[in-house]
Design goal:
By secondary structure, the chain is an alpha/beta fold. The chain has helices at residues 14-25, 32-42, 45-55, 62-73, 91-101, 116-126, 133-147, 150-156, 169-181; strands spanning 2-7, 29-31, 81-85, 108-113, 160-164. Bound molecules: adenosine-5'-diphosphate.
């Protein structure tokens, strides 16, 4: 069973690391941001609602997010493990996840640590619709307020592994894989 959660600020390199990890472990990459962006480009009702919130750098409601994650985790490819990216992001989402997965829970939550000035530069360089200076600042603020407290949540459950996110993609990847394998 490989049930992974990847944590870290916006721009910490989660997307890049996730692509490498899903190859390595053969598990699906479940990114709430990607699912929301897919809904936006399909122009669904959910997508239209989400776009305004996302462009401002705000968080989509917990109920909505929990609904899409629960549906996604029920797909057959998630039976033997998964990599959750961008979720959970709030205490309510973390509690919801624990309920969804009971009695097993998560095997490991990896926190990719990168300082604010570095992630801000990386986001400005990639230039997604929500990578404006205002939306970036809002997302980093919400990360501190809503998501950073989840480090304690996972740590108190004994599943947190912090990894230094500076260095090459390959270096960060090796650190993550050793953190995961040292628990097996
Ligand atoms: P980033 O981490 O760079 O903000 P994501 O792709 O993870 O990128 O998320 C983009 C946007 O999608 C967020 O700013 C937020 O509006 C919305 N979003 C994604 N995941 C969640 C979530 N778990 N809860 C609430 N909103 C979310």
């Amino acid at each position: 069973m490989t049930r992974l959660v990847i944590l870290g600020k916006q721009g910490a390199g989660k997307g890049t690391q996730c692509a490498l990890l899903v190859d390595h472990f053969g598990i699906p990459h479940i990114s709430t941001g990607d699912m929301l962006r897919a809904a936006v480009s399909e122009g669904t009702e959910l997508g239209l609602k989400a776009k305004v919130i996302m462009d401002a750098g705000d968080l989509v409601s917990d109920d909505l997010i929990l609904g899409i994650v629960e549906e996604r985790l029920a797909e057959p490819d998630a039976e033997n493990g998964f990599l959750l990216d961008g979720f959970p992001r709030t205490d309510a989402q973390a509690q919801g996840l624990v309920e969804m997965l009971a009695p097993q829970g998560i095997d490991i939550a990896i926190d990719i640590e990168v300082p604010d000035d570095v992630v801000t530069q990386r986001m400005l360089a990639r230039g997604r619709d929500d990578d404006t200076p205002e939306a970036i600042q809002r997302r980093l603020q919400l990360y501190q307020e809503e998501t950073a407290p989840l480090l304690d949540f996972f740590s108190s459950r004994g599943v947190l592994a912090a990894v230094d996110g500076l260095g090459t993609e390959q270096e960060v990847q090796s650190r993550i894989i050793s953190a995961i394998e040292s628990r097996d």
